[in-house]
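Before the break, one more example. Copy the sequence into your notebook; we will annotate it together after we see the structure.
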Amino acid sequence: MRVPVLVGPTGVGKTAVATALARLLPVEVVSADSRQVYRGLEIGTAAPAADERSAASYHGVGFVDPRERYSAGRFARDAAAWLEAIAARGRTPLVVGGTGFYLRALFAGLFAEPELGVERRARLGVWLRALPPGEPARWARRLDPGFRGGGRQREERAVEVALLAGRPLSALQAARPAPPPPAQAWYAVLTIDRAALHERLARRTRAMLEAGWVEEVRRVLAGGVPPDAPGLSAVGYREIVAYLEGRLPAADLEGAIVQATRRYARRQETWFRHQLEGPAVRLAAEGPPEALARLVLDRYRAAET
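Here is what the structure looks like once it is written out:
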């Protein structure tokens, strides 16, 4: 089956368009957002609100403990099952999100990952999160000669696989072919003028802070989640943790989040310009969500004929 996939940078309005589309077509939404998977982090991840969830069922939102690392490979396996179940119910799966590696894993395939064991991964994760900055990268390069960098999460992933599987991740990826993808993607890429997006991100950051974003992080930390947990490594959460630990002045918090979010949005825009594989249409996101949803539906139906 060919699945409609709604993508674009953070803050462009993907969830609003998905909600409007759900009123035109019997869809269920599969979230391809690496931060919305975490439980208890609704405000800072812009998780769909109650009215948005009433328009369509959501899969992949708020079901992973923030202390647990959720990989692109695991997402691909979970999402494949969700897509199959949605189609079996006679409804249309709609994938919505901005995490490029999740989309690549689902529609282009990753290598057949060996079973690493939940308890073993959890114990190793405690050790990895306790390492000071720079150490995960050093371990990754030492254990995997093919490691090419990519941030702390990928560093920890390389160490995890090398130690628990007994072979470097790069070697496993070369030796194990990717399974066939469960579906083909048809991409609708929402775009917006850079200045307009920056304004939206600034407004959204302020609204999130006013809605209790800092209190959300305090509550999660008080519940036993360590400040360096995978769920708290997202844009905005890192800055709030720094503020709560006294490393970032209160007066600088909002600006730091806005700047980090803008940089993240630029990286997403670059990814969606160069890394998507499959048919794609690019749609300006300045208009009302209802009009955009109708346009997405018309283009999708035209692609199916």
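The chain has two domains: 2-109+180-304, 118-175. The mean pLDDT is 92. Try to locate both features in your own notes.
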